[in-house]
Amino acid sequence: MNIYPHSDARTFPTTRLEADLLVAGGGLAGLCAALAAARDGLNVVLIQDRPVLGGNASSEVRLWANGATSHMGNNNRWSREGGIMGEIMEENLWRNKEGNPVMFDLVLLDLAKSQPGLTLLLNTAVYEVAKSGDRLTGVKAFNAINETFYTVTASQFCDATGDGVLGYLAGAEYREGAEAPEELGEKMAPGEQFGHKLGHSIYFYTRRTAEPVTFVPPSFALDDITAIPRYKRLTSTLNGCDLWWLEWGGRLDTVHESETIKWELWKIVWGVWNYIKNSGEFPDADNLTIEWVGAIPGKRESRRFMGDHLLCQQDIIEQRDHYDAVAYGGWSIDLHPADGVYSTHDGCRQFHSKGTYTIPLRSLYSRSLENLFLTGRLISASHVAFGSARVMCTCGLLGEVVGRAAALCHREQLTPRELAQPVQVGKLQQHLQAAGCYIPRQRLEDPARGATVTASSEYQLSALEPDGEWQPLEARMAILLPVRQGERLPAFTFMLRARTPQPLTVTLLGSEKSGNFTPELHYAGVTLEVDEARGYTCEFDWQSERDQYVFIAFSASDAVDIALTSTRLPGLMTLFNSLNARVAKHPRQVADGDYGVEEFDFWLPRRHPGQIFPAMTLSRPLRCHAAENLLNGHLRPEQQTNAWTPALEDPAPQVVWRWAAPETIFSLTLVQDNDFDNAMETVQMGHHRAVTPHCITHYRLWADETQIAEITHNHHSVCEHRFAEPLRAREIRLEILATAGALPAVYSLNVR
Question: Per DSSP, what are the bridge partners of residue 15?
Answer without folding.
Answer: 150
